[in-house]
Amino acid sequence: MIIIAGALRVDAADRDAYLADCAPVVTRARAAAGCLDFALCADPVEADRINVYERWETDEDLHRFRGTGPDDGQAARIRDADVRKYRVSAVEAP
Question: What CATH number is attached to the domain comprising 14?
Fold first, then answer.
């Protein structure tokens, strides 16, 4: 399993619009083969932060969906990003 997690930074005044523009991407991701979860969410404390969380079955599933990443217009709105890929070797109940 692959987990993508981290945060994007956008202008605080643009965050809600950015997330609204991402809704179709979230819908497509959740319907994509191998997607186990996909969420982009407003951080409750930092007004310019968007939390990123994705779970994918395989690297191939992730790359098939992601392609080259966000379009140029969306990418131009991101001021900073700290998002990482994690490989999970085991899963168990908390």
Answer: 3.30.70.100
